[in-house]
Amino acid sequence: MSTTKIALVTGGSRGLGRNSALHLAQAGHDLILTYRSQQAEAQDTVAQIEALGRKAVALPLDTSQTATFPAFVLAVTQQLEQHWQRTSFDFLINNAGIDARSPFAETTEEDFDNLLNVHFKGVYFLTQKLLPLLADGGGIVNFSTGLARFTTPGYAAYAAMKGAVETLTKYMAKELGGRGIRANVVAPGIIKTDFTAAARAAFPQLEEYMSASTALGRIGEPDDIGGVVAFLCSDAARWVNAQRLEASGGYSL
């Protein structure tokens, strides 16, 4: 049986998910990617991974729709059997996310629920449903945000969901430790991706302000994050568990 590790990255068609997938491929992992609507971008990422000599497949998934999770698990099972002759994968990277900025006093219940379903409920139940396929000795990487440590007005709901994910990650580490499964958090600061494009467009001085408040003097690039994810999915991180690893360049110290 092949000793190649397989990582499943949600939201792997663009942004930090795409970058994480490429770093994992460079580290020797095969990939299962999910995308919500950007199939062409997902297939482009698959092609880039294959150009690195690794296997990859892309599957549709809306992480806010928990009713679709059993069918998604079945699809993952079929792909594992077809492409790897395996019944399990090794690493789950819960990256998929949406951005919705609104002041606390103006946040609608609909906005709140949209964030909740993707960033917390989806992470909770997708991970739960995939546990039978997650190999013993594997790992989970959940994405949080620097906004769970420092505050930027307009992100109360988003940051609260990520704070919940950080607490959940500790419980995952504790309850899955008997299977040798590690669970950790990566918490990026502001990164120059499509995810933050609207905020950067709405506030032209945002990048300058954030850079001035960052010890390394700039905002982040996707390549600043993908390597952190790859590290947490490596033997070098085998004793790292239940930890929050903020990758923000030293913002707001």
TrEMBL record:
Superkingdom, taxonomy of origin: Bacteria
InterPro entries: KR_dom (IPR057326), NAD(P)-bd_dom_sf (IPR036291), SDR_fam (IPR002347)
Pfam families per record: adh_short_C2 (PF13561)
Stretches assigned to the Ketoreductase domain: 5-194
UniProt similarity note: Belongs to the short-chain dehydrogenases/reductases (SDR) family.
UniProt protein name: SDR family oxidoreductase
Protein source organism: Hymenobacter nitidus
